[in-house]
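Put briefly, the fold is written as integer tokens. One such record reads:
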Amino acid sequence: MTSSMPEPTAPSSRGAIDLGALKKSHPEPVDTTATGAPSWVRAINQELFPEIVALSQQVPVIVSLGSPRSPASVQLDGLLAAVINAKNGAAVLVTVDAEAESQIAQAFQVTQVPSVIALINGQPVPMFQGSAEVSQIQSLLDELLKLGIQHGVAGTVAPFSTGAEPVEVPLPPLHQAALEAIEAGDFQAAEIAYKHALNDKPNDTDAAIGLNQVRLLMRTQGKDLAAVRAAGAQNPDDLEAQLAVADMDVMGGHVEDGFARLVNFIGRNFGEEREAARARLVELYSIVGTTDERVVASRQKLARVLF
């Protein structure tokens, strides 16, 4: 097992987590460690993964990728749970069935189970593969907590379970404020909340995506689809007309059409307009999800027209 503790992977590095790929709907997993005592351990699936990434902005998150059919995985999860629960919320443990949740395993580039990886501020920190002794786990966790402090991730969180009903992981306050504003139709307030969240933590990926989503809502609010499409058809080389149609396409679920429109515009134009179209396309990619197959395909087409 590896005993060194590397820095969190930079957001642009290979292996960084793309939340957009983790949107499949699965049944709610249950806490497999409920024993009547508070537990900071939870089994998760793709649907819950974005919440766990957000939680890693508050405390370090240990992710154990294994298999319930592997005795080594089951034993390791038991040891990890004991060490984590002894920290009383200074860190949390989430377990992942790497076979059932293959997209999570692929996002972490896991090649064998069990594998243990940490998250700090949404970025992965490799820990170890295979089995480990309690003393080794404790030592690595102590190093991880120190690394969390260095990156502004410290404190405690409430348990996932008190032995009864699981506790829902709360959103960070500014994210919650943005969500409530969106639900109330106050997109400007939501935009301000996400901007404040990014000002506090510039690497807050969820806030950046949320900001792009809110701005898309603001740009398309009250617009007539037929009129926007007609203007786009009449003005194929007008930047604003093409951006407006692409926005409406993505909002309406015609994602590939919206992407193709902007890629074609970029291929025909140069200078500031070309860069503006590229920047908008990148925003739309983040909203759909950077590992979505439609985004991957469009990125390849974009690269061909740019280079």
